[in-house]
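Worked problem 6 (solution included).
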Amino acid sequence: MYKLYDFRPSGNGYKVRLLLTQLGIPFEYIEKDILKRETRTPEFLAINPNGRIPVLELEPNVYLSESNAILIYLSEGTPYQPEPKLERAYVMQWLFFEQYSHEPYIATSRFLLHYATDPEQHQAVIEQKRAPGYAALGVMEQRLQDHPFLVGDRYTIADIALYAYTHVADEGGFDLSQFPAIQAWLTRVQSQPNYVGIGC
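Solution. The predicted structure is:
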């Protein structure tokens, strides 16, 4: 059985939990509280020298880290990853977009507002993340105005990757009311079979 080392509030960990659940794959959940620096212990650093969650233990002493890499691994040969070469590339394009243009602004703002010890001291940094965060949401809105999902008009790991932090963007101070296509897409994602929320 897979073992998932994770921190429950993490959107990156949630991506993996959501896909595992939707695929019907059982897994053992092992909580690592990043606020208590439980990913900085020698034991955890032996698992992932980068000291981050999530980490999926595929078999004894075989570990895979980086949430989107885990999504790719798990979705191989399933409907969650398209077979056509170009569509697969489009999925990767959205995964890279999520990590470089979306997560650094929306997820980081959420962390600083809700989990940092003194959010007030980070206010200037949070404000700097507003414009690029809204820009990323604008890119998604443009795509979703004419498409039900991000790639191939069907639900894939591209949607899972971007849903994770978009659906809690308000916790980072982002107002989604100006993005009706994103709001409709969030509802479609939540209606997928075996959907679970971030706290599950």
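Discussion: The beta strands are 2-6, 27-31, 55-59, 62-65.
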